[in-house]
């Protein structure tokens, strides 16, 4: 008996659970199919089932209601920029450990939607624009999470490449594109990683044969996922995505999230009783829930005995040295060198006496994107401190260089020394609860007591200097808000869960109010706020109090001051980028420009100091019109809790920034093949077909600023001989590439192999990624790197024929450093089958 044969195959487990399900009362069975709360499922002590807990998401485990900090990882696009499955594996193990610490059974990650357009709002949450890179990263991550006994949930199935009108649009994708591109990473994660759960998306899908919301799409959920791929896990809906009872239940959805409430429950019970939904369908869903519970150790199987959540002792928290070290190393390794003239980087720690650190994002780095991926990190980023540590003999000064945000900053402690008094009132105006928040306060009032009808907020602003102060109030839902006696902001419109889905609860619009004082004064801010009942997203009230003093320098003056500081320094480090107003779940970006006057800032600083390094702090592409005019440019991503130390490591060369772009960086907005994410008449039509990302750039012959796969690292490489092994129907082809590290430090190269078809074919991309392998090579050494290109890389989906088919002929295999820096070529002959 081999070791493997002792593990029951999934099918056995689900079959076993079907038998268990069939013995339960129909009411119990149906109840298990809707969440109990926003993040938990129902327990059923009669069979020893405890409540399962799920939690977001791709950069860490937020938890189900505690306020304990979480390990905050670099954004998934940064993870993918490592092109390193071992890194994804290490992060997956950390994710599982965080899930256990937070008593979570299933982590709502990874996102394997593709970066179809650079303006996509959740671009930073996706790995890549490429289906092969995405699939490989996701498989490594899921295997590691699940290998540690925690479930993963691959999402959002399918066609959730836009955020605009995400709960209603239909993605129109032809069946060939669906198979070859958008289903591909899901297929890998189901078949190669055995993912426990899949999340059905908000949007709908029209594949030419069926047009339906993803939660009701029989073809997607049953025909492809469960029947063809044999998926024996659980399909849950995205949060509040399910709109129907019979259609979704019959299509193959297994679990409605969140709960309580929603379209199943009593309505599903009635559908079963009337015979519209067969009981066997319910049993299948319940069996899938129970199978996940069994795997998670949540099902004792002993009536009346509910296993408590088992947390092994000694789990490291997000501040543990091993966790910090891992996150710091990944953030450094994912950083992409876009330009490094005359090997300006790295900078020896003792080579500079003064460093001018410049930029809004230098003072307030954007380390995580907005939306459901958000976690509370153990500490706030402090880039000046990180640089002072890395350059111990240098003087580091910090300069904002001009504001880049639409909103002014949250009011700080010195303006609101007494903090904020928050009261929950019942309908009669009686105080149910009183809370206090120190400034700065993010303005969220969550978990209000039952019976709360409205919330009041009061604070005294200390205006310490004469002049014009500006107070900005950003509020969600119906409210009245005053500064002094002035009614500054008011609305009678009562908000619901739409404000969570469209992101406006996280980023409320603001009203600015000038306050002129001739001498120091204290001015009260008072507000009465609606309690928003956002169904499964919870009940909350929200008011942000933002403030700007009269003495705040105008942006122009700040920019000039930064340029002066740069001129006087040995080294200028300018950090430009996006911010939470730009990159978030809930909306798509309107353009690719850096916000504010950051382009001007870079140009003027670089003109003032020839030793200027520009660091781009963004998850998704932004236009860098000065890219080839400044000496050194690094892409730093949304780097997570250890990003600042990682950047310091990169600057001094303690770690090589070995990242390669997992997407294409456009040079101009006009060149972008898919420039927007906006549905037309409710439809997002994927007219580019299989030409996603770099494939479209190649088809159109457009020149990006930096191409897919690009990254200079700190070293130089030579490519030698390339050989293709013999073709094998089961294994594809192994391509062997000789490379040499011709520089003076160890380095990691990512050898990328792209395929070109036997003959130009308008239905196949001009060139596509077939495989890649990373190799660490010592200075002056050579390496023989083997890149496996699997059979699927050669296949096409024949809609009218047998499905997958391998067109015969001579394929060109081109290996190199990026999708455009192809150094060597060989061929493989694929015989007719
Ligand atoms: C997002 C999902 C997330 C869920 C729960 C939804 O709005 O689309 O990715 O897992 O909320 O937070």
TrEMBL record:
GO molecular function, one term: hydrolase activity
Protein name in the entry: Glycoside hydrolase family 3 C-terminal domain-containing protein
Keywords of the record: Carbohydrate metabolism, Glycosidase, Hydrolase
UniProt keyword Hydrolase present: yes
Organism whose genome encodes this protein: Pseudonocardia alaniniphila
Family as reported in the entry's similarity comment: Belongs to the glycosyl hydrolase 3 family.
Domain Fibronectin type III-like: residue ranges: 749-819
Domain of life: Bacteria
Keyword Cell division: no
SUPFAM superfamilies with a match to the protein in the record: (Trans)glycosidases, Beta-D-glucan exohydrolase, C-terminal domain
PROSITE patterns in alphabetical order: GLYCOSYL_HYDROL_F3 (PS00775)
Residue intervals passing through the bilayer: none
